[in-house]
Design goal:
By secondary structure, this protein is mainly α. It folds into two domains: about 5-45; about 55-135, no CATH class. It has helices spanning about 5-35, 45-50, 55-60, 80-90, 95-100, 105-115, 125-135; strands at about 65, 70. Strands 1-2 form a two-stranded antiparallel ribbon.
Amino acid sequence: MSDEKILSIVKKIYRFTLSVFIIIFTLFLSTIYYYNDPTLSLLIPKEEKNITSSKSVQQKNAGIIQDGIHLETGLIEGEGLMLVVQNCTSCHSAKMITQNRANKEGWRSMIKWMQQTQNLWDLGENEEKIIDYLSTNYPPQKKGRRATLTNIEWYNLD
């Protein structure tokens, strides 16, 4: 083979290798971007971002109560609801409230714990209103263990 032919083959291999590398590198960067921003917000025009942002949806539902439930948070409607929303859900999800149940002293001790360890601010005169709301709508449940299983056909494992 002549030197020109070898040089031509080497150039083709080089171009092919470079093309493959560029494609793989582009895919790698795209994957990293998608992992960090799955909504691909960089590709959405600014007008659409404002419409589709979750904040705008939350703002729409901010004051809506349907069937006794505050739509944005899922909390039960009642006196003091908005104080709870303002003071509690700014740090954690409302689900932290709905999964906990306590009497007034229990809620008071949870608030004190958050103030001592989680940097919760002094609630001032709102503390009693918040505790009243929480103890009224999320009191302790008198549930013990689950009911005994009945009408079960047991079998032996071999």
